[in-house]
């Protein structure tokens, strides 16, 4: 059978070394062999776990923020609730359960799932049976009328990222090339330039992530609504360097190891996301840390009310100030007609 490595090698033989974004796009998204296309990567038996899989409280708090935004924006009788990369559908199920008593909210919702993986689509169909979701291959086919309420947890980190490296010869681009029959990392003449930095400095840029953010923000600016994006990342004025990482069975590995069987992600640059969304005409809140966001929404009260040691332990993991609570950040991109909860300065 054709392997994903042979696809990448053939591509390099035909077109020359490929940038890290092109490599990520094939390794994760190749229509037959891509990492996300061929499996459910989540949970103990997979490669990584995510906040909704750790605790039901995560989706519940997102639900509160989303339903509150709907109310504050005027309780529109039709709104499109969109999730990007919904995984097993757990976040959406928890969100819907937590909001079922908000008068008229569920009646107003049309549910859309943007998902490329057939394996995960099947899981989502099971989890969300009864809610009649509609699936999309990309954001292009989302409805162009009525407000959008978009949720994306650990979605933007999976989109292709490219890397510029400062060398004595100026900016170069990190690429995957071939030495004999072996894939290797190398540097290639760059088609771009950035202001000079110290030798060895790395700048990451993600044209596909930027384009998708811009497209969603333009839609929100004209149709109304909000996007809530949660991811690991940074919100700094300076570039933070190389954050591209590969993970296989819950252990970090090299980006050229386990190709097609390892998750590849990079940290999301929230400062860049804010710039792109603001340019598209949106009002942006945050980013703030996941800890501040979830605490502002009352996660601790909810956890105590449930009186379940497993729920309490899950909440602590989401809020951990040396772990997920601090590393993960939340941004709200809105049409500007209301302010969302969760972004007050604590
Ligand atoms: N949000 C889920 C899953 C995160 S994993 C959770 O928090 O548990 C990333 C998800 O994004 C998976 O569902 C994956 O199949 C999907 N995905 C990755 N790249 C995508 C793309 N380009 N378009 C649509 N979905 C994508």
Can I get a quick summary?
By secondary structure, the chain is of the alpha/beta class. It is built from 14 helices and 16 strands.
What does this structure look like?
The protein is of the alpha/beta class. The chain has one domain (35-161, 206-334): Rossmann fold (3-Layer(aba) Sandwich), CATH 3.40.50.12710. Helices cover 37% and strands 25% of the residues. It has helices spanning 4-15, 20-29, 35-38, 51-54, 56-72, 90-98, 105-108, 118-127, 207-223, 270-279, 290-296, 299-306, 309-319, 324-327; strands at 18-19, 79-84, 109-114, 134-136, 148-153, 162-167, 170-179, 182-189, 202-205, 225-234, 245-248, 251-253, 263-265, 268-269, 283-289, 328-334. The strands form three sheets. Strands 2, 3, 4, 5, 10, 14, 15 and 16 form an eight-stranded mixed beta sheet that branches. Strands 1, 6, 7, 8 and 9 form a five-stranded antiparallel beta sheet that branches. The chain has a three-stranded antiparallel beta sheet with strand order 12-11-13. Strand 7 and strand 8 (182-189) form a beta hairpin. Helix 5 (56-72) packs across helix 6 and helix 9 crosses helix 10 (270-279). The radius of gyration is 20 Å and the shape is globular. The mean pLDDT is 96. Residues 29, 36, 42, 50, 52-53, 85-87, 91, 114-117, 120, 153-155, 158 line the site of S-adenosyl-L-homocysteine (SAH).
């Amino acid at each position: 059978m054709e392997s994903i490595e042979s696809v990448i090698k053939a591509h390099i033989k035909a077109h020359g070394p490929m940038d890290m974004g092109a490599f990520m796009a094939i390794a994760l998204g190749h229509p037959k062999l891509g990492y996300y296309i061929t499996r459910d990567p989540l949970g103990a038996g997979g490669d990584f776990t995510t906040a909704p899989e750790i605790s039901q409280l995560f989706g519940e708090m997102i639900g509160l923020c989303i339903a509150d935004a709907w109310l504050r924006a005027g309780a529109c009788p039709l709104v499109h609730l969109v999730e990007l990369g919904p995984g097993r559908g757990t976040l959406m199920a928890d969100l819907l359960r937590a909001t079922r008593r908000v008068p008229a909210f569920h009646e107003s919702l049309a549910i859309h799932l943007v998902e490329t993986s057939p394996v995960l689509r099947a899981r989502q169909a099971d989890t969300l049976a009864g809610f009649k979701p509609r699936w999309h291959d990309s954001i292009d086919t989302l409805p162009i009328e009525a407000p959008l309420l978009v949720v994306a947890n650990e979605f933007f980190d999976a989109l292709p990222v490219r890397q510029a490296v400062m060398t004595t010869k100026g900016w170069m681009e990190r690429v995957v090339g071939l030495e004999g029959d072996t894939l290797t990392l190398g540097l290639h003449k760059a088609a771009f330039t950035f202001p000079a930095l110290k030798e060895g400095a790395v700048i990451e840029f993600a044209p596909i992530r930027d384009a998708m953010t811009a497209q969603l923000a333009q839609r929100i600016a004209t149709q109304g609504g909000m996007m809530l994006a949660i991811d690991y990342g940074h919100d700094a004025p300076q570039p933070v360097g190389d954050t591209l990482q590969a993970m296989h069975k819950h252990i970090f590995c090299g980006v050229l190891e386990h190709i097609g069987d390892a998750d590849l992600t990079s940290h999301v640059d929230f400062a860049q996301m804010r710039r792109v969304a603001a340019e598209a005409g949106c009002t942006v809140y945050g980013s703030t840390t996941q800890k501040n966001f979830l605490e502002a929404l009352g996660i601790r009260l909810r956890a105590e009310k449930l009186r379940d040691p497993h729920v309490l332990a899950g909440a602590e993991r989401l809020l951990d100030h040396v772990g997920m609570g601090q590393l993960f950040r939340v941004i709200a991109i809105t049409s500007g007609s209301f302010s969302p909860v969760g972004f007050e300065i604590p």
